[in-house]
């Protein structure tokens, strides 16, 4: 039984989704997802955990397809709508997807798969099966979704979560953040990450609340929607709050007053996926009257730690463990550290993922012998609140809410004919949290603009360095390893 979908029958007439001005009820969502499930099944009774990759803009269709995959017994593999073809190809082929569902606007991009022998290519216009046969009974311990994370290796790893994992992640947040059917949330986050999929969409739909989609971020449109008076919950990354503040400051005083009055009526607002600069938190509070709730999570664990819904939300801190989640801090030898000392955050609970897809060694390495997941994030506890100090790897950059592997970007840049070597790091930035920058050792003349143009065909835009530096050689230690901290100083 997929509990999230079962619960929808309690809310049949209520509005589940607002998309492009249209309203869809929970009954509409159940009906459409059932139709999609039958299309995927064809003559089969159960997809038996076959992977179904799909590239759909944030919309009612996105949710119906995700639910349809689950109801057919498949594993959902949401693809990033801003990825170039090589990045999408990697995910499709790494998961050995049996199906690829493509929205019309992405059909040119994914046309190489149209005549594929290895998977069934479906346009969203093909999902019209009206069979009345029964759908499979899906065990909660079966795989539900594979999301990709950079981790600490150069190639992204597929994080497999079961239905029971997803249910645990949702229940924990619904309890901690007081979700109810009276909530109405604006969904603007990418839907190939837990932040958008679980924290926003799934928590709302579990609760009988309404999800309103805005497919592309636009500060003016966000404020327009806020002023319409229906939205009362908002979740975003620090970069988005930074952009909203910057736009707000350009507006005439009368418009600012209207926005301030609308924001004060909200139930609550969340910031996550990257550290929130205190300056942004304070500025947003002066506009909205709300202290943003900061929390901590990652693809492998959903959310694990959160500032309290009621009580002090402490700037620069991520709060306390969420319901059902166990947290400990350990030293490099795996021993718990005394209170007040820094250690690696380790997590245990039903919220933790099953495995890295088809990577048993990486999975084993990610867990301790007694079953705790090692996050790689270093923190300490101050007066009962966790505070993140940084990562144990300089090769992970947190920028604009994304966790980015510097090694992946370096490998890609090195394939350019004009590049002899390169080093990629993240440097502190108020808007992005960390800004991706690259030092290049060229072997022939190259213009930065030409390099950026080429990178746009190879990498998603958020992975493309925002600054470049040309060096004769990269700083290295005695063992020949690039010293990333020295490299950062050069920027």
Automatic annotation (TrEMBL):
PROSITE patterns to which the protein is assigned, alphabetical: AMP_BINDING
Domain AMP-dependent synthetase/ligase: 6-357
All copies of domain AMP-binding enzyme C-terminal, residue ranges: 408-481
MF terms in GO: medium-chain fatty acid-CoA ligase activity
SUPFAM superfamilies (UniProt xref): Acetyl-CoA synthetase-like
Gene Ontology biological process terms from the UniProt entry: fatty acid metabolic process
Record carries keyword Ligase: yes
The entry's keywords: Ligase
Pfam family, one: AMP-binding_C
PANTHER family in alphabetical order: ACYL-COA SYNTHETASE, ACYL-COA SYNTHETASE FAMILY MEMBER 3
Family: Belongs to the ATP-dependent AMP-binding enzyme family.
The name this protein goes by in its record: Long-chain fatty acid--CoA ligase
Organism of derivation: Algoriphagus kandeliae
